[in-house]
Amino acid sequence: VNFLSYRDGELFNTLDVRRDIVRAIRQFKPEMIVTNDPTTYFRANAYINHTDHRTAGAATLDAVFPAAGNRMYFPELLSEGLEPHAPKQVWLTMSNEPNTWVHVNDTIEIKIAALLKHASQVKDPAGLEKRIRERLRRDDWPDEFYAEGFRVIKL
Fold it and tell me: I need a labelling partner for 111 at 20 to 30 A (CA). Which of 55, 73, 125, 133 fits?
């Protein structure tokens, strides 16, 4: 995880933000990027997606293509030794249009524990855990089978 230290509620899809994301992509050279689906404003009629989440997703997509793999974008990064790199896939979380499901039974407890660490943002820990389990369960699957949906874009 690479934190860019932007303040909560103050993230905007600016040239500086995209440059920071392109810098990270060129530095780490990932084959796959995982980010938020910027098109998700509402989730299951029960959740309004935070503006920072949508903005992070949009800025990341703008950084992935066309900027990260194109030397015409942010040429100053070349002087830092950061050559263009084009990831092969983008996996969007919190999507209303998932096309790929990943079995998460082995990691659901870790996910819940990590989300509960955001104590300043969690007013009802039991309620959050219940919502996570409900979101990761589908009606057509056995009760104790959890899967996380992603919208996968192959580039």
Answer: 55
Q: What pLDDT tens digit does each residue of the chain (155 aa) get?
A: 778 889 989 999 999 999 999 999 999 999 999 999 999 999 877 778 899 999 999 999 999 999 999 999 999 999 999 999 999 999 999 999 999 999 999 999 999 999 999 888 888 989 989 988 888 887 677 767 899 999 999 99
- Note down the domain range covering 81: 15-154
Angle of CA points 19, 23, 27, to nearest 5°: 170
The total domain count for the chain is 1
For residue 118, the domain's CATH number is 3.40.50.10320
